[in-house]
Amino acid sequence: MEKKIDLYLISGFLGSGKTTFLQNMLKNLVGRKVGF
Description:
Elements: H1 18-27
Organism: Anaerocolumna sedimenticola
Pfam family, one: cobW
InterPro entries: CobW/HypB/UreG_nucleotide-bd, P-loop_NTPase
């Protein structure tokens, strides 16, 4: 059985809120493994 992983690719213009989005996403990933 293959395990699927979630992959998020964040892109956008300068000042579009990428860092804010990433910080909020990391706060809400309780109990999951995260890699960069």
